[in-house]
Specification:
Number of strands of chain B: 8
Radius of gyration of chain B: 25 Å
Helix content of chain B: 55-70%
Helix content of chain A: 55-70%
Number of strands of chain A: 0
Strand content of chain A: under 5%
Shape of chain A: flat
Oligomer: heterodimer
Radius of gyration of chain A: 20 Å
Distance between the termini of chain B: 70 Å
Order of helices and strands of chain A: HHHH
Largest sheet of chain B: 6 strands, parallel
Largest interface: A-B, 83 and 117 residues
Largest sheet of chain A: none
Structural class of chain B: alpha/beta
Distance between the termini of chain A: 72 Å
Order of helices and strands of chain B: HHHHEEHHHHHHHHEHHEHEHEHEEH
Chain lengths: 102, 465
Amino acid sequence: MEIDPLIFRLSIFILSIFVGYYVVWSVTPSLHTPLMSVTNAISSVIIVGAIIAGLSGNSESIFNTSSIFGFLAIALAAINIFGGFLVTQRMLAMYKKKKKEK
Amino acid sequence: MISANLSAIFYLISGVLFILALRGLSSPETSRQGNLFGILGMIIAVTVTFLSIGNFSTGFIFVLIFILLGGSIGAFIAYRIPMTAMPELVAGFHSLVGLAAVFVAISAFLNPEAFNLGTKGNIKLGSLIEMSIGAAVGAITFSGSIIAFLKLQGIMSGSPIVFKGQHPLNAIILISIVVLIYLLCASQSSNLFWVLLAVSFLIGFLLIIPIGGADMPVVISMLNSYSGWAAAGIGFTLENTALIITGALVGSSGAILSYIMCKGMNRSFFNVILGGFGATDSSSSSVNKEQRPVKSGNADDAAFLMKNASSVIIVPGYGMAVAQAQHALREMVDTLKKNDIKVSYAIHPVAGRMPGHMNVLLAEANVPYDEVFELEEINNDFANADVAFVIGANDVTNPVAKTDPQSPIYGMPVLDVEKCKSVLFVKRSLSPGYAGIDNDLFYKENTLMLFADAKKMTEDITKNL
């Protein structure tokens, strides 16, 4: 008997929760704000779904109700991706070590 | 067009890169590299999606236009946003993830053929369940984050909004969401799908309104977690590994942050979520209303105390963010350091309006991160320090949490500020903090209250040093 692919996805999901658990506990508390902004950015990988949705129209009509929702989702996710990564970059650039005593 | 197997491998790679992005945050040195891993993972995921569709028609141009449109808005916001507004920004971004999840789910529901999920009105059962869970969680994330954003921005009052029958109402709505998902799967009716979305938006709104402003660190972390679960739900629908991995990572990340924040307040998660904290405390604070003497001083006195100290610990809180005093504070510390005074910063886990809020503000003001310490690292040092400079913090320094079992904050871990030889407390008035309780520290023999705006007071002290 074959195993339902859903079970494989569920396995990936459960294992990722554990990976996330251990990785996030090792994040230093002073970087918790960048952690939130970067998780924000990466969760916008939902854009892959939005792209599929946006391109779901056929060649005669690019825009139908379904693809319009797709395009809107693309824009929203793109705000998050660019905004999330760039603001994280901006924050992380500010964390500096003490300069050597003169 | 690349094969489904090949694209699945690339999605896996981008999932791994996202794990490395979070891993990088274990220290500030590796964090910048981590962020680049994250960006790389995103580029791979988007590119592979294009290649796997292989449809480079006019629609493709529109996809690029919308990416550029959203991207430039995002980049503009990222460069313009002041660091003090970071909690609002993150809440706003969460709402976008939630809404994007809802839109993708709507699109998949209306046109399941494009996603290989069956045909309209006859969507595969498993996909429909995943889709409706993703959509419901996304909608809750969206409306909840909007409320959090409005509260943080001050457009909506930060005080909890409570009414009679609130909890039973929420419980009924949550149960009805489960029932609706069941009915939706049984009937495939699009009307039920819209009702499900509407009800989910409503519950997101209702869940956050009773939670007070200072509990926002928990709320933001929790919504962070929700946005992850929503993404994972959509990931299952689309059978996309990158989304499933990311959703799980973000989901557990937000859950851990909520846990840390709750622990920092010694409150259970449910206590925070059920809300109303700080709204009904008038009775407990009025018990202790007799006037007690306080010593107040001016910038000159404070400068004198600090000049004669050999070590100073700074305790920043949300008030520092409100007054935008972080730069003035760092200038004051520079002057102190020139006089060979040892200065360190003590940060309580729930200081500010989001996890790590104070650390970012201090980093922005060029405070080196190795002078900034967490509660456990520095709490024993207060006994040996000469001066504690409390700027914009209140409840997190209240010794009542250690002494009075009747107090609502009893048991909360607090900074042992009172053990310092002297305490300088910058505050605008004697009003109690968010928890609505008097701070015993105000009346201690060795406390000098500095009644002024945090920024102005810090600047005045620097002048007097």
